[in-house]
Fold this protein.
Amino acid sequence: MQRDEKTVRALRLTEDVIKLNAANYTAWHFRRLILDHLKSDLHQELDYTTKVAADNPKNYQLWYHRRAIVERLQDPSLELDFTAEMFEDDAKNYHAWAHRQWVLSTFQLWENELDYVDTLLRRDLRNNSAWNERYFVISRVGPLSPDVRRREIQYTFKYIKQAPNNQSSWNYLKGILSRQNFEDYPEVEETCLYFKQQFPSCANAVSLLVDIYEQKATQEHLKQALEYCVELSTKTDTIHSKYWDFRANRIRGALQV
């Protein structure tokens, strides 16, 4: 580096350094300078990063380097399959998901992503990374129209029925309904009431009912929301009791106005 030697020998030396410490940022940076100087075959470099990733799947420097190579190539053709292979070992690898989302956004490769996410959820409906990816795609491929929201509501309830206490699917549902008027989607209240009846310990359904009734804001609905807050605080979601006490006090204030 002192001599600024950008040769094949220097390139091989970076491999030795990275083998000893794959988190060595300087080695990766100098490697990119050498690759640019030598006008190396960057497709071979992708092969190299694939080999390194086998032993270092969560190494930030590796993923940054791979992104830089893909940017130089302007060729994302291997990346979706590459990240999918990484998920076979760890379905929640944050670095792999971040890379995949960058590829999708940069090269507009949205077409088959929802099908891929559906495959992951059929395999493991508790895969919160897959639910996050679904929201990432849905919120970027077009406006979240009422029809799209209704489709996603039905899709999510299909999985909630299989695992009523799965936090990931409920969080996705709340994301889809964020800042929406619940009266536009009456099926949500109906289904939550069904879950409350069939699965009394399902705190997520009751939690969403609190949101719905607090938004409706009639005296009757606020009283019901207050009752549910007390239930959550004392029975079904005691770990968050202070939060539900706070919500209950806010509703009591609204009832006194």
Observations:
- The radius of gyration is 25 Å.
- Residues 24 and 194 are 55 Å apart (CA to CA).
- The mean pLDDT is 96.
- Residues 181-257 form one domain.
